[in-house]
Amino acid sequence: MTTHVTIIGAGLGGLTLARVLHVHGIPATIYEAEPSAAARTQGGQLDIHEYNGQLALQAAGLTDEFHAIIHAGGEATHVLDQHGTVLLDEPDDGTGGRPEVLRPDLRRILLDSLPAETIQWNRKVTGVRPLGAGRHEVTFADGPAVTTDLLVGADGAWSRIRPLLSDATPEYVGITFIETYLHDADKRHPAAAKALGDGALFAVAPGKGILGHREPAGVLHTYVALAKPQDWSTGIDFTDAAATTARVAAEFDGWAPELTALITESDTAPVPRTINALPIGHRWDRVAGVTLLGDAAHLMSPFAGEGANLAMFDGSELARAIAAHPDDTEAALAEYERALFPRSAEFAAESARNHQLIFGDDTPEGLLELLTGQDPAE
């Protein structure tokens, strides 16, 4: 009989794992630190790829639900230089393989697909220890400890489960994002809305950039990227929104006003996001009864757009392996990890390469080469 699966973390990867296990009739429980599904906002738009994220949703039996939440037109790409000159304008003609959806909508369809008792909320992990023979005890800040025969760390960048397998920790990759939002943009911020376009915006120079997405209902969601030392953001009082906005905008002195408006006209206080990654090729020796998925296994910078897609694909592939070996947990985990390690190493290396192309000394030419597959000089 298949072992009950204990999953730490109710992000996209953990939810996909639980859903695909449910499709196969395999029981699982997710323990999540947040008090409820509505405890915080869940981030912006994601492009879901036909070669991994969409396959995971297919395995989860949620293809129709996925199609219902696609943001039509969201695959458009707009590249500008710092003066506002259009370098690339690719509309979304509906034939692309990476449709855009809002992360909260994607999480909702996964949550709705699970039996209500699958997730235990407000269960923050405080410790985990091996008991031998592949069994582990997990303790929580609230609620009783649990003992499990199959433990999956789906708990993100700062995983509490990862130390069972690896001493690796995420390291700063040299770039910080500052997140802003403009609302009702076509009416209230028309110049910024026109500059951003219908889908994704890239306006970059060496070591900096203004990256954005148009989201439904006229929302412009921007990540202002700056190559700065790791402690740069700690020297800024982000509780003073006006001073922070002025400080960040000063980094783009001389840029087109319709671009800097994505900073200066923000309807929300700017929020810093330092970008971290695990070592490329992160792997571990097989440890009985436990494995990792998603950012817990292979945190990488976002410049390949693979984080959420890989987390979901990891979840679906782990569930498939467990279903294929219902009486042999170790065979299932070994099969899953054999494919996981080279897959995640490939995309982590791609993300690191893209980071250099987007923000390196020869950008925006490097960015255009990345997006079009052609050398702009040719």
The arrangement of helices and strands along the chain is: EHEEHHEEEHEEEEEEHHEEEHHEEHHHH
The largest sheet, given as strand count, sense and whether it forms a barrel, is: 7 strands, mixed
Helix % is 25-40%
**Uncertain stretches:** none
Percent strand equals 15-25%
Structural class: alpha/beta
The helix tally amounts to 12
Number of DSSP strands?
Answer: 17
What is the mean pLDDT? 95
- What is the overall shape? globular
* Backbone CA Rg: 21 Å
- What is the distance, rounded to the nearest whole angstrom, between the alpha carbons of the first and last residues? 61 Å
Task: Give the strand order, joined by hyphens, for the main sheet.
Answer: 5-4-13-14-15-12-16
Please, could you describe this protein's structure?
The chain has 378 residues and is α/β, with parallel strands linked by helices. It is 33% helix and 24% strand. The chain has twelve helices and 17 strands. The protein has helices at residues 12-23, 53-59, 63-68, 103-112, 185-188, 190-196, 241-250, 257-264, 295-298, 307-324, 329-359, 365-372, and strands at residues 5-8, 28-31, 45-47, 77-80, 86-90, 100-102, 119-120, 125-132, 135-140, 146-148, 151-153, 171-182, 200-205, 208-215, 219-226, 271-277, 290-292. β13 (200-205) and β14 form a beta hairpin. α1 packs parallel to α10 (307-324) and α2 packs parallel to α10. The model has no long low-confidence stretch (mean pLDDT 95).
